[in-house]
């Protein structure tokens, strides 16, 4: 693992000056990111991890793939019960198969690049500023805070909306083919669910769909509550890997036992201690 890489030395701090929030480059980067989030709900900071460390990033995360817990599920775009009674034309009646898997935080070495980044107060401050938030906290959950998402060949993460407001992720291994992040920014709002447009995309209307050509080491900031999005089917012989950095505007967030078991196939004493909070910050 990357024990020789000091915290934040893995970041291209010339482009992304995490160590000096008072530099004009910080304000410029944050301003550009905020503008992209306001316009499209998504911003990609290319080569956030220095290119010379991309191979190490991939190798560290690829070594974790055997620890991924896989649960193939039938889902809808709203992450609600698929047997819930809905009107005949409701897009929630479109059922899809979700095949992504998660490596839990307690399987990820503290020495790894993604763990060092996740626990860095400077990185957390930078992300909070990009989202226009006063501060962010690591999750207190021992499994959900930092995870590796694995989508094996032939699998996909189908169209859905997030319940969480802010998502921070980083591609660490690209698929041979497919595995493309696709999204429809602002397809719904707090005032209008816009069911006809959602139903149209689920029926393969590609007109509102944007696609991202993500590369390993790119940092992605995303607001997925109002943007329908998916990762398309992975093709070829290599799984798609992405690190998910889960933060909360509140301290002490721990997931429910039910949700934790669904994601990881197990729970720990912290999930059974009566302090669980089903926060918006947990994985979707």
What would your notes on this structure say?
This protein is an alpha+beta fold and 284 residues long. It contains six helices and 17 strands. The longest helix is centred in the first third of the chain and has 17 residues. It is globular and about 55 Å long. It starts with 23 loop residues before the first helix and ends in a 20-residue tail after the last helix. The model has no long low-confidence stretch (mean pLDDT 93).
Q: Which key phrases capture this entry?
A:
globular; four-stranded antiparallel beta sheet; about 280 residues; 6 helices; 17 strands; seven-stranded antiparallel beta sheet; alpha+beta
Shape: globular
Helix-residue proportion = 10-25%
Q: Characterize the biggest β-sheet.
A: 7 strands, antiparallel
Gap from first CA to last CA: 29 Å
Tally of alpha and pi helices: 6
- Total E-strand runs: 17
Order of helices and strands: HEHEEEEHHEEEEEEHEEEEEEH
Uncertain segments of ≥5 residues (pLDDT<50)?
none
Query: What's the mean pLDDT score?
Result: 93
- What does the radius of gyration come to? 18 Å
State the strand order across the main sheet.
1-13-9-16-7-5-2
Structural class from helices and strands?
alpha+beta
Approximate strand percentage:
15-25%
